[in-house]
């Protein structure tokens, strides 16, 4: 996998000896890849990511994986904050209102496969920026192909045959439910039910129950059965 190095000065030490536990996906919401590179590599903006993938599939490395890139900001996942110290951030060159190019997705899939293997992560470790910061962030947005990643063992997809309590199950899966039901529902739908609207319904409760049962967060995983090793697929 060819990588183009475009070093960013915006990084620091991973705090408290934290290891990589998550991979957070973003979209740039900018007109072109060079615009995103300019922002992510500019010390005045104090933002970065470990990788950026262009619409043409070019993979840029901005920050070494050993370092703490500044991509996630405030937010929580699985009951823990400082997501930057515990994650690898990947920016995707996309305007947020259109489909993701095939070349970009192909490169992303190769990168995720490599990262999951090297860091010994379950596919549930791949999350959206909106997952860990619901109500504040909406990327990579409803156009992103999460189900495609799940089909290739690079993310997860819920079992739609269950029923449960939406917010309780959301907490069990890892969402920071303290932000409120509306924010959690919006983040959930952006990833798993793109363009759905209205109040919480049976499909929302069923899919969230499936996530909670099959992919509990690390905080609650000690009481759950051991998950299968990769490759892992659920539809």
From TrEMBL:
Keywords: Cell wall biogenesis/degradation, Hydrolase. GO terms for molecular function: N-acetylmuramoyl-L-alanine amidase activity; zinc ion binding. Residues 8-141 form the N-acetylmuramoyl-L-alanine amidase domain. Residues 1-133 form the Peptidoglycan recognition protein family domain. GO terms for biological process: cell wall organization; peptidoglycan catabolic process; peptidoglycan turnover. Its EC number is 3.5.1.28. This is N-acetylmuramoyl-L-alanine amidase. Transmembrane segments: none annotated. It comes from the Bacteria. It catalyses: Hydrolyzes the link between N-acetylmuramoyl residues and L-amino acid residues in certain cell-wall glycopeptides. The lineage of its organism: Bacteria, Pseudomonadati, Pseudomonadota, Alphaproteobacteria, Rhodobacterales. Coiled coil: none annotated. SMART domains: Ami_2 (SM00644), PGRP (SM00701). It comes from Silicimonas algicola. It holds the Pfam family Amidase_2. The keyword Cell wall biogenesis/degradation applies. InterPro entries: Amidase/PGRP_sf, Amidase_domain, NAMLAA_amidase_2, PGRP_domain_met/bac.
